[in-house]
Write a structure and sequence with these properties.
CATH architecture of one domain: Sandwich
Low-confidence stretches: 2-8
Largest sheet: 6 strands, antiparallel, barrel
Helix content: 10-25%
Radius of gyration: 25 Å
Shape: elongated
CATH class of one domain: Mainly Beta
Mean pLDDT: 81
Order of helices and strands: HHEEEEEEEEEEEEEE
CATH superfamily of one domain: Lipopolysaccharide (LPS) transport protein A like domain
Distance between the termini: 119 Å
Strand order of the largest sheet: 2-3-6-7-5-4
Number of helices: 2
Number of strands: 14
Strand content: over 45%
CATH topology of one domain: lipopolysaccharide transport protein A fold
Structural class: mainly beta
Length: about 180
């Protein structure tokens, strides 16, 4: 009888503890090394991402993937020109298609322009880039530093915070100054 009572007291319902352990499980779905991901649209290559380490958390309710050892993205514009993004770390949020790039972020355009910052958000679907961090931008017409950036991928529409640097502006010659 004592043995039966001891057995009953030692058995307890652990189902709640098991549920809590499963909820808190933040383990990745997969980890891969030396990856190459090709993004296509209508059989046209849009971008090629390479990274030495990829950690996939798409098993969580808010799915994402991390590139903890840096990444390189070559993306192509409508004319097939190559543009390059480098960063020490990246995280891709699956549902929002937002990429958060951190650490020595460099965006090199095919025309020679270079953007450098410590953090850059890239909205892949709307092809929009933004940061609240200080950045530098250099091309044939611009050489400046600023505190924030909001731009399209071609840098034809952009807004910045306070500017420091030089901007080349060309104005048509005034007909009155020819006298």
């Amino acid at each position: 009888m004592v043995f039966t009572i001891a057995l009953l007291f030692s058995c307890e319902d652990n189902s709640q503890a098991l549920r809590e352990m499963n909820i808190d499980n933040q383990d990745p779905l997969a980890t891969a090394s030396n990856i190459r991901m090709v993004y296509t649209d209508s059989l046209k290559i849009q971008a090629v991402l390479t990274a030495s380490k990829h950690i996939d958390y798409t098993n969580l309710s808010f799915r994402y993937a991390e590139f903890t050892e840096g990444l390189k993205v070559i993306f192509y514009d409508d004319l097939g020109n190559e543009n390059e993004v480098l960063a020490d770390y990246g995280i891709l949020y699956d549902e929002t298609k937002l990429i958060d790039l951190k650490g020595n972020v460099e965006l090199k355009s095919h025309d020679g322009s270079i953007l450098k910052t410590n953090q850059l958000f890239w909205d892949f679907q709307s092809e929009w880039l933004f940061t609240e961090q200080p950045f530098t931008f250099n091309d044939k017409d611009y050489n400046f530093k600023a505190l924030r950036l909001d731009t399209n991928r071609d840098f034809t529409k952009f807004q910045t915070g306070s500017l420091i640097g030089t901007i080349t502006v060309s104005e048509p010659e005034d007909s009155l100054s020819k006298k």
